[in-house]
Amino acid sequence: MSLPRPSKADFLDAAHDHGYTLDDTQMEAYLGLADTTLSSYETIDRLYQSEIAKQPPVRHFTKPEGDANPYGAWYLKTAIEGAEEGPLAGKTVVIKDNVSVAGVPMANGSLSLDGYVPSEDATVVKRLLAAGATIVGKSVCEDLCFSGASFTAASGPVTNPWDSSRNAGGSSSGSAVLIAVEEVDLALGGDQGGSIRMPSAWSGVVGHKPTYGLVPYTGAFPIERTIDHVGPMGRHVRDVAVMLDVISGADGLDSRQKDQPAPTQCLAGLDDGVAGLKIGLLQEGFAIDGVSEAEVDAAVRAAVAQLEALGATVGTVSAPWHGAVAMDMWNVIATDGAAYQMLQGNGYGMNVSGYYDPEIMSYFGAKRREHADALSHTVRAVALTGHYSLKKLHGAYYGKARMLVPELTRQYDAALEQFDVLIMPTMPFVATLLTAPDAPIEAYVRTALNMLTNTAPFDITGHPATTIPAGFAAGLPVGMMIVAPRMKDALALRVARAYETVRGEFPKPPHA
């Protein structure tokens, strides 16, 4: 493709942004140099088109509406059959709509990506199909996945199946709801601040955020490379464990997997119980001032008492930075990081080796400007504050936050040296009322992001965390979160399975 060359006006804009002064002679010289350099861009484009680019396969899909989509949870329905045999044979799986399924449009909850058709399955989708799963569709997620509630998607709110006036949790909102109402067996979710665990907790299902880098993110739309996770969701712990065993392990493409992790073997010890294990109640995860609801805390403590009755030892432990300090760290990393990578970097950013999706970068780069005013207030708040920070503060505060992460990690690791797992409420309060799109911006953003206190810290430290329904408060599901040492995902699932066994089958939503 022949590329247009920059004009003098283009270079004057660039020079102004960098603080340069150009006279006419310098301008002509730089324009000539750009012409030569851009010829290399054209060569790369020709090579990419001949060597790498491919056409999307033909896959059929439908868009359910009205009574066929009562909770607003489906983006599209498909029927992509996997291998005849495998650990997921006979299981139906829905894919969060920030993950590429070749030949099936994706929107990532946003008009800024709506209509893009990937040419290749994400690694996790390939692994699910190879394991025998049937991909039955794409689930609605929040606008660019930047909300813990479920009212920001361009397609409209995803409603909670326990109370349609309330949030289902986000950003993997549709995935959680479709499991809760048993329209699918399993779902793929994504998690940068709690987006697997939060909707699982509020919708009454099981969700697992894997150890950072355990599951390849290849082919999922990024927010911020250091906190991006994908993972399994389901009604039962065993199904989630099987799915994690299928999708985990290095793929050789994802820069997040620098340690090249092996696949998990969660099933092997899943039913070993908790006798002899030491469970630490994380002090800072309960009774959070001005946030926690006492009934939620009580439900989780009651669930832990059932584990204690099974032979676990229970105590209290502290990680002083959990809570406000950890959230300050996450706020800086997510704001600067998302502005730099997801927005200015059109999803993928630069400066690391590994997998890139140039087609989605180009499509999103154009569409996010075309539909800029339709972006959610959460995304626009990040864009504006992040742009200011990167331009005026030069990214230094992102660097400061990243340099503090080892101390937060050390505090959790120290707690996990005393106890095998840490437990706290997944969400400190039950599902909140849906917020209207025209609500005041402050209320809109607050109710989209005010529930991350217990979940987001483990995205920046990378510890695995499982949420499981632990009863009800005010008639709505309460989630219990189990945090394990890094790469001990099987341990978190083992504790969840022990609780699931003594708890019994969790009820379905009343109208499901």
Automatic annotation (TrEMBL):
Gene3D superfamilies: Amidase signature (AS) domain, Glu-tRNAGln amidotransferase C subunit, N-terminal domain. Keywords: Hydrolase. Coiled coil: none annotated. InterPro entries: Amidase, Amidase_CS, Amidase_dom, AS_sf. GO terms for molecular function: amidase activity. Pfam families: Amidase. It comes from the Bacteria. This is Amidase.
